[in-house]
Amino acid sequence: MRRITRRSFTVAALGATAWRTGGPMAAAADPSGHPAPAPSGGPGAGRTRPRPTLRGVWLATVAHRDWPSRPGLPPAEARRELLALLDAAADRRLDTVFFQVRPTADALWPSPYEPWSGWLTGQQGRDPGWDPLGCAVHEAHRRGLELHAWCNPYRVALHDDPGRLDPSHPARRHPRWVVRYGGKLYYDPGLPEVRRFVQDAFLDAVRRYRVDGLHFDDYFYPYPVAGETFGDDASYAAYGAGFPDRAEWRRWNTELLVRETAARVAAVGRATGRRVRFGVSPFAVWRNRATDPAGSDTRAGVQTYDDLYADTRRWARLGLLDYLAPQAYWHLGFEAADYARIVPWWARTVAGTGVDLYLGEALYKAGDPAQPAPWQDPAELSRHLTFADRYPQVGGHVFFAATEVAADPSGAMARVVADHYR
What is the pTM of this model? Predict the structure, then answer.
């Protein structure tokens, strides 16, 4: 998304052209020689039940992308805005909301680990006087909607001044955890204590609320910034022994986060008798075919495997997740990353793994005059769903984002509903 959340990188990531059976980590062991679990150990592996269909929407809170409209809204007004977005999702016959509840290492619930989000009140750490996540879960379920808690694992702030964080913020109490990069602050994914802490933080929401899932977006290691180097020398020196290079070590750090989170989410589900799903919505290009024969027939300027250190194809093949929702944010016929080439690649990738596949759809592009001509046609997204219907591995679609679902300025969402969601 990156559009200050995560979606805006979907165009920029294509660089000048435009947001395995092979592959270096295809073996069933990690680069240091530690054994990887067999595919049967993953949450999705071995499943024989029919794949569920899903009609989802992302509801972003960072930088007031979808909600709240501004900081410091009175609780009653903020609640009305939130319920209006849930109403719109239900009216559009959607069934799942991915609610961003941990946008910048802060919380939209009374977390014992992190401060209240400044996106709510304008001041990080200030109690808004109500519980947005608790309200959202209750009201979504009343409307027949699933509610998945969407968390960004490592982003700390959209600025690079720790002094602007709440005094109680863990990043201020543990400055060694923090890396300045690209004008922002991030936790260092190479530190085991960081990985454990961020899991504790978002698992608190899974334990305390009857959420239907835990959801990560595409930010693991940050998107590359020209001329800058992510400063993890100290953690690499401490923990990188046994890996052939830093890139393999970083990929293993990301995979550990996914593995451990999946196991802990499953444990909460068993302990509470609930069905809690865990999934990721990665940037849709794992690798270009020119980089790796197993990659997609694309020419993206960013590759998830190489630049974000997220081996999403391997995660699927090992069944580490319940679902993947790649951000397939390009139109049919787009030369650098054609939707018609992205979809069959992902269908092949999840085939036989037990991992569900949902396609992220760029509703925000529909009717935007800055976008290419195909996005000016309100039927473009409907054609996406028609095309994806050819692939039985596709179990649904997720639309970015809630504002466009509600307002639908181009009529593209109404066309999807009329054509596919009767």
Answer: 0.90
